[in-house]
Design goal:
With about 700 residues, the chain is of the alpha/beta class. It is built from 22 helices and twelve strands. It starts with a strand and ends with a helix.
Length: about 700
């Protein structure tokens, strides 16, 4: 199958002030001039200053004060980059796909719309949304798969709170009324799930926008539709578009239909898509592609403000950077200015003389982040519509407050921390660099790394509602740390009760390697067959450094070795073979001089070959097991019912299930009787009780 280049067009969160500042040539200037003309035709101020001047309003400012121009600027960024890639670099797409609002730019790239008519669609859409006055709503990114999010939404039981997007294997979006989203943000952390309010002005992809969706269909009937030159994937239809499809209807329906981005990119990949280029500001879709697909070429040319020299280097370095001769089917311009048009159904929608004044949109803030997700360089998932954030596991002991460093040493450490988390050269992570505008780090990723930094210094409990965007540079983050650290030193966080005892190291290298392969495969939701001992975790499997650190920490905890390698950096161990060497080096010392048990560890019952454990009544044993699961997950015991599905209902992933089940078996002296047990075979406490009943008689009879 021939390799194909796919242009991906992100939604309206795709904006960086002055993102085109270093890329203004004759082509970009001409496109912006045409787009400014359409904007003024509909009563909007020109949008080119937002994209060419570095002092332009931020994303947060536009969401709050001028969401209409944010939409126009996002569209303009996409079409300018797509045009630039073709005219300057000879890169043409074989396939195009738009995420949410990005469908408009994708339809223009495919040839259904001219660049100006695409802008007219954006202007009409913005006016219809504003006239509808549906400001009481928003969206929340949730670190769950679709099935588990639906269970969570069912528990809240609000008909207007719906699944809005499936972006990556563990990255979904909910949309609905503000009050319902507030409830979701309260419930999710109680279950150990990251939930982050997105900076959007409306509850996109929800029934709340049914009214403007209907009026938008009618308003778009006058826009001329052309025959496409490039294949375009429709998220709403779940297939490639044809020239017979009702484009105005599809452009309106995406206001209420869920986004199925993960399914779409997987279909494109199955059809030969191997080079994905994000045509928009930042790298949201690039990270999602990395999270949802096997290793592919994924580029985000406008991850940050850039120059032609930097763009030349990026595109030259990319494998087969899509500039090979294209097929005859894509010989037309990526975004044609003119083309043979199908006759419009009615006259074009009239442009208002003056745009109605926009009331500031309410953008409530939400919970900050948790476990890491991929960045565009091989990370897992992501921002506005993605990105996961780094948090410690729900039952992990928070590290104690660290001794206060002098400011210079701490700044050096913080720079190194950010550089490693983002996989950037440390030299570019300067104290005064803007994390978003200069380094291209979106808000979710900023939340993720800042949460991990606060955890590192034992400060996470001292500021529970921090928003990373309030601290846009490392200098600002240093001020935050200096403010928090004295209090942390005076009152270090207490360790949680009932630490799960570690598993003993396996004496069999092959068994241990098999177990570690399972742990990595389950953590990444990969087939175990691809997690081979010599596969490069980042280069071959696309696991970013934060995720590598997270899984390696779980492996070390599993074998009771975490205290023996407190400063370990996962990137020093790039394959499972290297990790096995690390464990081999650590384990003998662990066997000879076991670390002191942490306080309040649940004492194991006597071993099966010493004093036979006392068999509890079924009722007493079930009560004890419910307590163990509730304490390990920090859940209210009332929600850990005997028939609750541990993963689907309680959100406990397979790694955590294995960990707690191992503790249960150790508690009852049964660990040696089920060495190969897989917790996912026992999805409820009732099933675990059956397992114990099957194992215990043999123990009692020994």
């Amino acid at each position: 199958m021939a390799a194909h280049t796919v242009f991906l067009f992100p939604g309206q969160g795709s904006y960086t002030p002055g993102v085109l500042h270093g890329l203004v040539d004759e082509t970009v200037s001409e496109v912006l001039l045409r787009l400014d003309g359409v904007a003024t035709e509909y009563g909007f101020a020109p949008i080119s200053p937002l994209l060419t001047e570095t002092g332009s309003p931020s994303l947060t400012q536009l969401v709050t004060d001028d969401p209409d121009r944010l939409q126009l600027a996002s569209y303009a960024t996409s079409v300018c980059l797509a045009t630039l890639l073709e005219t300057r670099y000879g890169i043409k797409p074989d396939l195009v796909f738009g995420h949410s609002f990005g469908e408009i730019a994708a339809f223009a790239s495919a040839g259904f719309l001219t660049v100006e008519n695409g802008m007219r669609v954006v202007c009409i859409r913005a006016n219809e949304l504003r006239r509808a006055g549906v400001a009481d709503g928003g969206m929340v990114a949730v670190a769950l798969n679709v099935g588990r999010l639906r269970h969570l939404l069912a528990a809240i039981d609000d008909p207007n709170l719906v699944l809005a997007a499936e972006n990556a294997p563990q990255e979904t979006i909910a949309s609905g009324h503000t009050a319902a989203l507030d409830g979701l943000e309260r419930l999710a952390p109680a279950l150990g799930v990251r939930a982050t309010r997105l900076r959007v002005p409306y509850a996109f992809h929800s029934p709340l926008l049914a009214g403007p969706s209907r009026t938008l269909t009618a308003a778009l009937r006058g826009i001329p539709i052309q025959y496409p030159a490039i294949r375009c994937w429709s998220d709403v239809l779940g297939r490639y578009l044809t020239d017979a499809d009702d484009i105005p209807d599809l452009l309106a329906r995406h206001l209420v239909e869920p986004v199925r981005f993960l399914a779409g990119v997987r279909e494109l990949h199955a059809n030969g898509g191997t080079r994905f280029i994000e045509c928009g500001a930042r790298d949201v879709l690039t990270r999602l592609v990395t999270a949802g697909l096997p290793p592919v070429t994924a580029l985000a040319p406008l991850r940050k403000r850039t120059t032609f020299a930097e763009l030349d280097t990026l595109l030259e370095a990319a494998p087969s950077a899509a500039r090979a001769a294209t097929t005859p089917a894509v010989a037309a311009a990526a975004i044609p200015a003119t083309a043979t048009a199908r006759a419009p159904a009615t006259a074009p929608a009239a442009a208002p003389a003056v745009a109605t004044a926009t009331a500031p949109a309410v953008v409530p803030t939400g919970a900050v982040a948790t476990p890491p997700i991929s960045a565009g360089n091989g990370a897992r998932p992501a921002d506005p519509f993605p990105e996961l954030a780094a948090r410690p596991a729900a039952d992990a002991t928070p590290p104690p407050a660290q001794p206060r460093l002098n400011a210079e040493d701490q700044l050096t450490e913080v720079r190194r921390f950010y550089a490693e988390a983002l996989e950037y050269p440390e030299s570019v992570v300067t104290p005064d660099a803007e994390l978003e505008a200069d380094l291209g780090i979106d808000s979710l990723k900023q939340n993720e790394v800042l949460a991990a930094l606060l955890t590192k210094y034992g400060l996470a409990d001292h500021i529970t509602d921090v928003k990373a965007t309030q601290y846009p540079t490392l200098n600002a983050i240093m001020e935050l740390l200096q403010t928090l650290q004295p209090a942390a030193t005076e009152s270090p966080a207490a360790a949680p009760p009932d630490v799960v005892p570690p598993a003993q190291p396996s004496g069999n290298t092959q068994e241990q390697l098999a177990e570690i392969r399972r742990m990595y495969a389950e953590a990444m939701e990969y087939p175990e067959s691809v997690v081979t001992p010599d596969a490069e975790l980042e280069a071959d499997l696309g696991i970013d450094s934060l995720k590598q650190n997270e899984i390696l920490a779980a492996v070390l905890t599993r074998y009771g070795l975490a205290d023996r390698a407190p400063e370990v950096q996962a990137t020093q161990y790039p394959t499972l073979n290297a990790i096995m060497e690390l464990l081999h080096n650590l384990q003998p010392a662990a066997t000879e001089s076991p670390a002191a048990a942490p306080p309040d560890v649940v004492a194991p019952a006597p071993a099966a070959d010493s004093i036979p454990p006392q068999r509890r009544s079924d009722e007493g044993q079930l009560a004890e097991i419910r307590r163990m699961y509730a304490e390990a997950m920090e859940y209210p015991e009332s929600v850990v019912t005997p028939d609750a599905e541990l993963e689907a209902d309680l959100g406990i992933d397979s790694l955590k299930q294995n960990e707690i089940l191992a503790a249960v078996l150790t508690r009852y002296g049964l660990a040696d009787r089920a060495p190969e047990v897989q917790a996912t075979q026992y999805p409820t406490l009732n099933a675990i009780m059956e397992l114990l009943q099957n194992l215990e008689p043999a123990t009692a009879g020994k």
